[in-house]
Structures are given as C-alpha cells and as structure tokens.
Amino acid sequence: MTIRLIGYSASYPTLRVIICLKELGLPYELEPPASYQSLKDEDFIANKHPFGKMPVLFDGDFRITESRAICRYLASKYQGKHNDIILIPKDVHKAGLVDQFISYELSYYDPPLSKLVYQEKFAKKFFNKDPDPEIIKQAHEELAKVLDVYEKLLEGKEYLNGEYSLADLVLCPGTNYVYGAGHSDLWDNRPNVKNWWSRLCNRDANKKSFEEIKSFWENN
Amino acid sequence: MAIRLVGYSFSGPVLRVIICLKELGLPYELEPPASYQSLKDEDYIANKHPFGKMPVLFDGDFRITESRPICRYLVSKYQGKHNDTILIPNDVHKAGLVDQFISYELSYYDPPLSKLLYQEKIAKRFLNKDPDPEVIKQAREELAKVLDVYEKLLEGKEYLNGEYSLADIAPCPSTYYVYGTVTHSDLWDNRPNVKNWWNRLCNRDAIKKSLEEAKSFLENYENV
User: Fold this and answer.
1) What are B125-166's pLDDT values in tens digits?
2) pLDDT exceeds cutoff 60 at B224
C-alpha cells in the first residue's frame, strides 16, 4: 500500500517529507487539502492532525504527524531498503549528533528563516498582506548571526555531520525559498555555507523537489 | 567515567535531561556554569555550545547539546542497561509516535508555556522587569486551547503514547514551574485527563527527585 502524504508541496514542512521520501526511494501519493481553512475542520482535526496542521503521513493504517518526526520514522523503517542512502547513521554517537543538528535547525535556523519565508513568499500571495520591511530586516540580521555559527560548524566538513544526513535535509526547503527571494547573500558570502548549499542543491532529490514546487508557484 | 552535565538544574531544558538520567538509572555530575553571561564566552562557545546555551552533556569524550537530542541519545545508548524503564519503545511505529508527541510539546505546548514561565518566574526575579498582564492573558488563552487538545489526546490513556515515555518527560519542567505558581494550576486541574496525567507524572520517583533538586538549587542560588 502506497504511502499517503497530506499537504501542499509548496508548504515547506511538507516539502521536507517529500525530499525525505525521494531520498529513500519511496513512492507516495500527495493529497493536497481542499484549502488552508479545511485544516481547522472537525474532521481534519479528529482524523488527521489534532492541531490542524500539515503534513500528515499515512503508512497503511499508521498515521504520523510533524515533519521531522515523520522523516525520522521513514528513515528508521525504510533506510537502506530501496537504496544505500543513510539519513540517520547506525552508530549511536553519530545519530546523536545528527539529532543535535536537527535541533539546531529547529531552535536557531528556522525561526528567522520561517519569518522570511512568510514575508517574502506567502504574505502577499496567500494572505493579501504586504511584506513588513522591519520584520524582514530583523530576520535577515538574526539569520546572518546563525549562519556565522554554521560557517564554523561546516569548517573542514562537506555536510553538518561530515556525511550527508537528515540534519542537512531538514533545512533545504525553507532555505531554497529564502535563497531565491533576494537573500542569497546570506549563504553566498560565507564560503563553507556557500559550498554546502551548492552541494545540497545538486542532490537529485532536492533538484526534483524544487522543480516540482517551481511549477506550483508559476501556475498559482 | 561519569557523565558530565553542564547547566543549572532549575533550567527547564537541563531538568529535562536530569529526569531522563534518573529514569535510566545513570549517575552524573552536574557542572553549573559560572553565570548566564559565561555562556557567551568564546571558550564556552568553542568548546561547549556553539549557540551559547545549556545543557551540554559529556559522555567520556563525546559531547552533545540540545536537551531532546541528549535525552534520545541517552535512551538509545543506555535504555535497559541499568533498569527496565523504557523511554523510547523498540517498535518503529510506537517510537514514531513518541517522537510526534515530543514535537507537539515543542511546537504547540512549550511556546505559550514558556511565555507564562518568563512572565511569572523570570522577568521580575532575574531581569527586574514587571510581568506584562496582556502577554500573560494571551499566553493563558493559547495554552488553554493546547490543553484542550491534550485532554482529547489523553482520552483512555495514562500517558501520551499509552505507556510512559520520553514524550511525557519533555513537558515536565516548565509545567512544574507554571503549575506551581498556583495562579495557573487551573489550566491543568480543570481538565480531568490532563489533571490525572500530571498527578501521575508528579508521583514518579525520578520526576519527584529531579523537581526537588531543582527547587532547592533555585532557593539557594544567589547570582545568575
């Protein structure tokens, strides 16, 4: 039975799971909700996500929510089954560090990044609100400081934990949006970060996923 | 070699790790930093936490940061070695759901709870700022809605994932502080499933001991 993924591919937590599915070589069916408002319907809340969010993944009868938890589950269950890609290392110490880097993304990288994603990509188009230049400026400055830390974390390494892992995957979707929305200097001005981002953009799963949503933005 | 945990035991994220260590029966040494300011020192940033935060755990030469990854690492490595306590089930589906509930805590439960914690416990005592009643009101309303969801999630269950797990440990520290302000204990007490769940958690040895440790540390602590 195919995996079902509920969400919009343009929503970057959903895209996180899409990239993960592609990396692991897993087929899936994407089921976009009727609308953002439909996420608050009683039925969605009762049977899909109790907090009215996306993505939601069904693997047969098994339902799981929250993009990073979904990715960890998919990696635990399917890693190595369809190809050789390792998203979470078997070694408990290496896996611990991958988890740590995922937490850095969640705690420090994503907050300013998600503000920029909303302001630059979603505010006007989906919510008819003008981007707020003050928020953009502050978020840009905050993200710059975070990327200074990432510049050091990546010293002498191709990926955050040395080898490619879920720690790199989780920040790809949001970064793709903000990089392409007039803030590319944040990554390009830092050599380690720049090379790391180029490397990530060259991965098949990322290339295909970014192409997929490109046509969403062009057609909506 | 004993595990070293860098942090203040009353700090929520540090307390999360302390509960986990106690649940797994693991001895450890607590190393409180000199001050909150010292977390921004070059040396701390280079050798402990690149973002200047606590906790930091050293297991021999191995260093790991961020409370939830630290807990997951300890569970992966030591679960079942010193006692029978299971914090992450071996079954991949059950483990996935524990992970999901940890994410709910992080995404929905913690944000309004942290605001209340800051306003009621930290602002005046540590930063000489008056609590903001508007922020408190909004945070309470937001947390009430989250706890309405938790009330349903706990229907017919003793713990979030049925059996006790890391998912129940994650919300303990901040809940303890905000519940303890008495002003806001109604948020948990007015919801029967949530109330019973919280009482059950407060009665667990590891949690009881950890919270007492934090309480006495906080009472004796002069400078932060």
Assistant:
1) 778 889 999 999 999 999 999 999 999 999 999 999 999 999
2) no
- How far does CA B71 lie from the centroid of its chain? 10
What is the layout of strands, in order, in the sheet containing A3-6? A28-31, A3-6, A56-59, A62-65
Q: Do A50 and B95 touch (CB under 8 A)?
A: no
Q: What is the DSSP string of chain A?
A: --EEEES-TTSHHHHHHHHHHHHTT--EEEE--S-SGGGGSHHHHHHT-TTS-S-EEEETTEEEESHHHHHHHHHHHHTTTSSS--SS-SSHHHHHHHHHHHHHIIIIIHHHHHHHHIIIIIHHHHH-----HHHHHHHHHHHHHHHHHHHHHTTT-SBTBBB--HHHHTTHHHHHHHIIIIITHHHHTSHHHHHHHHHHHTSHHHHHHHHHHHHHHHH-
Q: Closest Cα of chain B to A179: distance in Å?
A: 23
Question: In which element (H, E) is residue B135 found?
Answer: helix B133-153
At residue B171 the predicted structure's pLDDT band, cuts being 50, 70 and 90, is very high
* Nearest-CA distance A218 → chain B (Å): 31
3-state helix, strand, coil in chain B (%, to 5): 60, 10, 30
Contacts of A45 (CB under 8 A, 6+ apart): A51, A52
d(Cα B219, Cα B224) in Å, to the nearest integer?
12
pLDDT at res. A219: 74
* Integer CA distances (angstroms), A195 to A155, A157, A178, B128, in order: 11, 10, 17, 45
**Binary contact (B69, A93; C-beta < 8 A):** no
CB nearest to B93's CB, from A62, A96, A102: A62
CB contact under 8 A, B77 and A92: yes
Amino acid (1-letter code) at residue B121: K
Residues 6+ apart with CB under 8 A from B105: B167, B170, B171
A159 pLDDT more than 70: yes
CB neighbour class for B34 (10 Å; exposed up to 12, middle 13-18, buried from 19): exposed
